[in-house]
Amino acid sequence: MSNRARDNYVQNHPAQGHRAQSILADVFGYANFRGQQEEIINHVIQGGDALVLMPTGGGKSLCYQIPALVRPGTAIVISPLIALMQDQVDSMRLLGIRAVALHSGLSFEEQMDVQNGLMRGEFDLLYISPERLLTHKMLDLLGHLTLSLFAIDEAHCVSQWGHDFRPEYLQLSILHERFSHVPRIALTATADQRTRKEIAERLNLADARFFISSFDRPNIFYRLTQKREARKQLLDFILKDHAGQSGIVYCLSRRKVEELTTWLQRHGVQALPYHAGLDSEVRHHNQQQFQTTDNMVMVATIAFGMGVDKPDVRFVAHMDMPRSIEAYYQETGRAGRDGLPATAWLVYGLQDVIVLGQMLAQSGMNQQIQQLERQRLNAMLGFCEISGCRRQALLDYFGEHRDGKCGNCDLCVEPVATWDATDAARKALSNVYRTGQRYGVTHLVDVLLGRSNKRVKSLGHEQVSTFGLGKELSQPVWRSVYRQLVARGYVTVTSETHGGLLLTEKSRSLLKGEEQLELRRDRYEVHELKVALPEAKLEGDSAELWEELRALRMQLAKEREVPPFQVFSDATLRGMMASRPGSLEEMLQVSGVGQFKLEQYGEAFLEVLGKHAVA
């Protein structure tokens, strides 16, 4: 807090000024803790180490921010990205909290000001990258400070098996060795059992208490479909369900990002590109535009996203299949951080598996890691091809059981049709064997359909017994059969033959007629989207009030040069509309309105609300 705010806080709350519950209400504006937050916070306040797994939007930051305000000294928050650090610092300052970041984007004079302020005890939280923290100069400086705690954010970056590995994170075990008296809290939104174990071992947190929250994001509607005309499918989805709203669209390549951005712009969608090949100033500008605009779509590679602190992202779309369920979960988790309804949308095809497999083969990773990554890729394809509840399957992957269907995914809203594909699958597998187990789906389908094209003739495949054996099914259906056989593990895609299919041991029983097989019928859209958590439609006076509140928020945000959501989130604005406070005291009861923000913005929002007072 600022010195004045801290003094006022202590004077007004002499008996409970430093209790976590009071800080939660008076500083952050929330009446109650969620889930395990209170237990985690009390554990850290008492000096305990903790490993916290909590989904994006679950309130991880409070788990170290509140202890930082309760315990004496400065909290050191280790964060992997400058943009993430700055967003956090801006948010803290808007709450009146004394937070600062130390990074390479600051001038020498600014860096010296921060270091001098640390020595004078002027900050409650210091955000810093692992690279800078690990310098001898910084470690020596920390040795002269009173430290309240170390928070290691995005802790999954320590995992060499993971998709966001940062080698500098491996050296953070020095904190335990050099500052053993300072509690440490490691936090992440995504970690399977293997990654949890690796985080604990590499950060010397074996004796820490583990807090594992539910991985469920009940406000996200999961919606996956096969690719047909991917751009048109995406545009229809945006215009039909999320017109004028913020979203992220992920693509596999930089070229695809650029081309899709231009195409969306031509079709009336406000879109900007983001990938590692852009100039750093352009990337920074585009990210700022996304953060500060209510209806911007960011088209990006996975270079964009870690720590995106924009709560009103209403959809995350994937134009290509992610390389693992962990990556999918983390990327889709950037939608709906405010708890309001959001959509995770994905189109996929077997070609995605082939391309990702080739990228993996060319990655230079050792064979053990490649094998694990291939297993994760196959698990992701399997998730795409399930016929049951998406949420159940997603939670099962992370070791969390859910009873009953969720009612808030495409397969719950409109169950997929299946068919007895035993005979078709046996023909498809036999065709792989007869042609030599080295050809891709396009060629295999040509053989089954009896197409005497140049390649079929040159390879002599007009003579195999499966030539023309599949004329009863169409080309799209045969492609679907092969894709699902890959997903079910009956065949595998080999990178050595550029996407050729190879039979697995599992295929033996099916070829021998010892088992039956049902497959999904492909569909390219869910027709009845009766989602479980529909966003309330605003009409008449409510719609006018909503737009006026948003306009005021935007005005205040521009004056302070911060994103609008850092003034108040959409959820807080809706809370104001629901309760219609008529005084500052009543305004303080709205979730997300703390004492400092009340002093800054309360009167302005009350004035707008007063114009729409219910008679």
Automatic annotation (TrEMBL):
Cofactors required: Zn(2+); Mg(2+)
Bilayer-crossing regions: none
One Gene Ontology term from the biological process aspect of the record: SOS response
Key words of the record: ATP-binding, DNA damage, DNA recombination, DNA repair, DNA-binding, Helicase, Hydrolase, Isomerase, Metal-binding, Nucleotide-binding, Zinc
Catalytic activity: Couples ATP hydrolysis with the unwinding of duplex DNA by translocating in the 3'-5' direction
Ranges for domain HRDC: 539-615
SMART domains given in the database record: DEXDc, HELICc, HRDC, RQC
Documented EC number(s): 5.6.2.4
Keyword Isomerase carried by entry: yes
InterPro entries reported for this sequence: DEAD/DEAH_box_helicase_dom (IPR011545), DNA_helicase_ATP-dep_RecQ (IPR004589), DNA_helicase_ATP-dep_RecQ_bac (IPR006293), Helicase_ATP-bd (IPR014001), Helicase_C-like (IPR001650), HRDC-like_sf (IPR010997), HRDC_dom (IPR002121), HRDC_dom_sf (IPR044876)
Helicase ATP-binding domain residues: 41-209
GO cellular component: bacterial nucleoid; cytoplasm; replisome
A matching Pfam family: RQC
Helicase C-terminal domain boundaries: 230-380
Gene Ontology MF terms: 3'-5' DNA helicase activity; ATP binding; DNA binding; four-way junction helicase activity; hydrolase activity; metal ion binding
Keyword Transport: no
Family according to the record: Belongs to the helicase family. RecQ subfamily.
The protein's name: DNA helicase RecQ
UniProt organism field: Parendozoicomonas haliclonae
